[in-house]
Amino acid sequence: MATIIDGKAVAAKVKAEAAQEVQALAAQGVVPGLAVVIVGSDPASRIYVNNKKKACQEVGIHSEEYALSGETSQQELLALVEKLNADPNIHGILVQSPLPAGLDEAGVVETIAPHKDVDAFHAYNVGKIMRGRYTFLPCTPAGVIELIRSTGVEIAGKRCVVIGRSDIVGKPMAMLLLHQNGTVTICHSKTQNLPEICREADILVSAVGRAAFVTGDMVKPGAVVIDVGMNRDKNGKLCGDVVFEEVAEKAAYITPVPGGVGPMTIAMLMKNTVAAARLSLEKAGDSHG
Ligand code: GUN
Questions:
Q1: Tens-digit pLDDT profile for residues 24-63
Q2: Is the pTM of this model over 0.70?
Q3: The dihedral of CA 49, 52, 58, 62: what is its sign?
Q4: Cis bond leading into 195, ω under 30°?
Q5: Torsion of CA 173, 192, 203, 275, to 10 degrees
Q6: Probe residue for ligand 1, chosen from 96, 121, 137 as the CB with the greatest number of ligand atoms within 8 Å
Q7: 119 catalytic, yes or no?
């Protein structure tokens, strides 16, 4: 039976470190500030945004929410992002994804000043991730790396399989595992023999977004299984991509949903916001001296 990785406990440590850094910044007269923009009324986004605001409170980060109607135009949204780019009290800007149909998400992300892009979605930060020289770590993939680290299992030299190739999770996840010297395969909807490839994984990360996608027969005995999925099952209950009971029989370590990756994404966002505030202080120092 697998050991369950406690995402809440690992996240609490990351948040405690961020809170300490907030104290250190306060002593230098800076309160880290995060602006969270939400457009429309997607219920899942509402929950995520509330959780992000709650984490800010816990850590001591000033947060501002901008809840815009689903009718907001691209121009209005870009104007808000520009305003936040220029606001010295805001160090991090996050526009909750997905945006309502008709809005150009990439256009919005590219308008965020790269030094305030705490999601690390801007092409400049994505490029830095490719190079392995980070200003901001992508929150969910960085959280997954911390969870794997917490098991004590070494990534270097291991077969790592990532299921899913999204810009938010799959692609940056593969890159971070590669930087840890994993041997990485990305699987997706067109992959042939997907179960066979998954069975080779020492570390299996699923970011598909489909309940019951990863079954016991797809998992190598003794593997580390990380479930990034956030889905609803037939009864409307929150669940991941992995059939938990079945896979827990075979894996050495497994993350639950909820209580696995989710809290880590938010903890890493706190870490990035504090890093952005630190960066602003260093920049101010540079310009004065
Ligand atoms: N939607 C789902 N995950 C995320 C995230 O990490 N950041 C943003 N901005 N939107 C999301």
A1: 999 999 999 999 999 999 999 999 999 999 999 999 999 9
A2: yes
A3: negative
A4: no
A5: 0
A6: 96
A7: yes
